[in-house]
Write a structure and sequence with these properties.
67 residues, mainly alpha, 2 helices, 76% helix, elongated
């Protein structure tokens, strides 16, 4: 299940990086806003990946009292 969630997150992250690198807005007042928004998207993707990691770690730990 984690794999199925991470695949679209990875695609979104790569698309955001490409937008940030290749498609800077023409309007001179917009590039900073554009970079900030791109950063927010990437940061939230990292946060979601962290949550997935926490779930995986939780379920991989042996449960106390089970055989």
């Amino acid at each position: 299940m984690a794999h199925e969630i991470r695949n679209p997150l990875n695609a979104i992250s790569m698309a955001t990086q490409r937008l940030k690198r290749d498609f800077i807005p023409v309007d001179s007042s917009k590039p900073k806003i554009f970079r900030n928004l791109s950063g927010v998207i990437r940061d939230e993707i990292k946060r979601l990946n962290g949550i997935i990691e926490e779930f995986l770690n939780f379920f991989q730990k042996p449960q106390i009292g089970t055989v």
